Amino acid sequence: MLCLNSLRIVCSSRALLHPNRLMSVFRAVTYPTHCLPVTSFPKKDTWISSMNLGALGKGREIIYCTNQVQSSRNYCAAQMKLNCWSCKQPLDKTPAFFCLSCKVVQPPEEDTSYFKIMDCDCTFTLDTQKLQKRYLQLQRFLHPDNFSQKSVKEQEYSEHQSALVNKAYTTLLKPLSRGLYMLDLEGMSIEEGTSFGGDPQFLMEVMEINEALDGAQTSEEANKIGQDTKGKLADLTEQIDAALRKGELQTAKALLAQMKYFANIDEKVKEKLSEFM
User: Fold this and answer.
1) Per-residue pLDDT tens over the stretch 11-54
2) Is 198 helix (H, G, I), strand (E, B) or coil?
3) pLDDT in tens, 243-274
4) Quick one: 223 exposed, middle or buried, by C-beta within 10 A (0-12, 13-18, 19+)?
5) Within 10 A of 130 (CB to CB), how many other CB atoms are there?
6) What is the 3-state secondary structure of 145-156?
7) How far is CA 207 from CA 200, 211, 212, 214, 261, in A?
8) Cβ–Cβ contacts within 10 Å for residue 185, how many?
9) Cα–Cα dist 257/248, whole Å
10) How high is the pLDDT of residue 164?
């Protein structure tokens, strides 16, 4: 049994294949505990809280400790601590939008989940009001206009951060794009242009709705189709949420494919109604 009190493993893939060589690649660091937990939840920083940004994520400290000498796969890990690119001080939160020491904007972490960026629960039925509030708060501080007098690097980072926040917000705002993103996080996706060919009856229903919409002569007729479509979208939202909560990804994928058709009809209804204005 091997336990590390104050060591971080810095090892190559070759060393991992030979567990007995692990000790030769250890580098000492100062950690007081013998084995840090996988995740840690540091307190909110007072400077960030004063900006009303809320919780910006969890720490990124990482330390490995093997449970058995003969197995390089048995280890416990907390997240690795990053440093500010400017003052080199540790960044205790991720995503780190600003350094808490020198207040300099940080580069975006592209692999961070959109849910984490927007401080939302990873759920299909998230609170869109909270999402919008978070978006406005982040953009208030990250917008490139705030960095016009700063260094070129800070201007660049603010632009990238702002763009990433925009992408996260627009992706999570609508149920369809949110659901597709959640599937993507699980390694599943619905390719653009993919048709839902498993249910001829469903395809016939969609075709009939489109024909009725094309033939609508009044705004009342188009609006009736729109209301029916919104009802179908609401029903699909409940079904998709239930499927995702149960981990039934294939069912959720099939339902999202149906949602794509009705979301398209919903957009066509808006275009049709504009013709009657």
Assistant:
1) 444 444 444 443 333 333 333 433 333 333 333 333 333 344 44
2) coil
3) 999 999 999 999 999 999 999 999 999 999 99
4) middle
5) 14
6) HHHCCCCHHHHH
7) 10, 6, 9, 11, 10
8) 13
9) 15
10) 96
